[in-house]
Amino acid sequence: MKQLIYRSQPFGFDEAMLAGILSQARRNNARDDITGALLVRHDLYLQLIEGPDAAIDALFGLIAADDRHCDVALLLARGAEDRMFPGWAMLDDEMPSMAWSVEQVADGAIEAAPPEALLGVFARIAAEGRVPPADAG
C-alpha cells in the first residue's frame, strides 16, 4: 500500500467547488480502495491519500491535471502497512489545528517540513476518531 501527501492551491475556492471535489472523491475512492483526508483552507489543500500503489499513482496524476488545483507539489510518497484513515473514502477538515499560518505557507514552510511533521498533522486528525458519515466511505 502507498501513502502520498501533496499540497496545492485552490483555484476559485468556494463551498460548492469543495462539495463537488468531496462528492467525486468519495465515490471514486470507494470504488478504487483509496482512503484519506483532505485538509482545506482558502489558500491551501493539503491531502493524504492511501491505497494500492497503481490507484494512488493514477489518482495523483488526475489531481495534478485538475484545473481546480494550482501549483500541485508532491511532498511525501511512501509504503505503509496500515491505513491512517480506514473507513474514510475522503475525510474533510477545515484545518482547525493547522500548524502553519498563511504567511508561512506562502513562504514555503510546508515544502520545507520534514515528513514527520506532515504525517503528524494527519495523525492528529486521525486520532480524533471521527466516525465516517454514511456517504463518506
Description:
This protein has 137 residues and is of the alpha+beta class. It is built from 5 helices and 5 strands, in the order βαββαββααα. The chain has helices at 15-32, 53-65, 102-106, 109-112, 115-127, and strands at residues 2-10, 35-41, 44-51, 69-79, 91-93. It has a 5-stranded mixed sheet, with helices on both faces. The mean pLDDT is 86.
Helix-and-strand structural type? alpha+beta
> What Rg is obtained from the alpha carbons, in whole angstroms?
14 Å
Mean pLDDT: 86
How many helices? The count is 5
- Sketch the major β-sheet: 5 strands, mixed
* Total count of strands: 5
Order of helices and strands: EHEEHEEHHH
- Which range best describes the helical content: under 10%, 10-25%, 25-40%, 40-55%, 55-70% or over 70%? 25-40%
Order of strands across the biggest sheet? Answer: 4-1-3-2-5
Shape field: globular
